[in-house]
Design a protein that fits this description.
The two termini are 15 Å apart. Strand 5 and strand 6 form a beta hairpin. The protein is built from six helices and 14 strands. By secondary structure, the chain is α/β, with parallel strands linked by helices. 40% of the residues are buried. The strands form three sheets. An eight-stranded mixed sheet has the order 2-1-3-4-14-13-12-9, sandwiched between helices. A four-stranded mixed sheet has the order 6-5-7-11, covered by helices on one side. The radius of gyration is 16 Å and the shape is globular.
Length: 213
């Protein structure tokens, strides 16, 4: 029997939805269903949920909170049912306890830590960090099947995750300082980079996500 995936990309007005949808369609099976949705009821029927994010932490978490019932729906999906959940860029940052972008804003609090600005003290390090950087893999994870240290992915960000626990770190990169590139535990994962813009490596990461159960 073929396992059919029902993939929900959350539309709360703050994500690169078209690119994420297109990248998923390229790696999904023909029978898989991919939906862009702002309806929390759709999350109940999803096998996989993706939380994208473009913009500032505060704007994104406010928009997500204003999407009635969505936070409760993703909490149930990821933390109660323990189904695969992927946060991308600011979607990853919102998994943490708080963000310090244009004030202090509470996050989802699923992963211990906070989101802080990249160090501006070195004038050679341009902010936002924009471009290709290599990954350093710290521990095995299903999302990293066939992904190795030295593989490059695409970043666009000015803030990064400062984790409270090392066991939340899956992979990192370096941009003036070590930066968590992939965080999480079990079924909950966040990536600071954009897999939908990371060519073959990003496609493989999304393919691996769809294989998680």
């Amino acid at each position: 029997m073929i396992d059919v995936n029902h993939i929900a990309i959350i539309d709360y007005g703050a994500g690169n939805l078209h690119s994420v949808h297109a990248a998923l369609r390229r790696v999904a099976q023909p029978e898989d269903r991919i939906m862009v949705t702002h309806d929390p009821h759709d999350i109940a029927h999803a096998t996989h949920v993706i939380l994208p994010g473009v913009g500032s932490f505060g704007d994104c978490i406010t928009a997500l909170t204003q999407c009635t019932g969505m936070i409760e729906a993703i909490e149930h999906h990821a933390r109660v049912l323990k189904k695969p959940f992927l946060g991308i860029c600011v979607g990853m940052q919102m998994l943490l306890e708080r963000g310090h972008e244009h004030g202090v804003h509470a996050g989802l609090g699923w992963i211990e830590g906070e989101v802080v600005m990249l160090d501006r003290s070195d004038p050679s390090m341009r902010i936002p960090h924009m471009g290709w950087n290599e990954l350093t893999v710290h521990r095995p994870h299903p999302l990293l099947d066939e992904i190795v240290t030295g593989d490059h992915v695409y970043f666009v960000h000015s803030y990064y995750a400062r984790l409270a626990r090392n066991d939340s770190l899956i992979a990192s990169t370096y941009y003036g300082t070590p930066i968590p590139a992939m965080i999480g535990y079990e079924n909950i994962i966040g990536v600071q980079f954009h897999p939908e813009k990371s060519h073959k490596i990003g496609a493989k990461i999304l393919e691996n996500f769809l294989k998680m159960r």
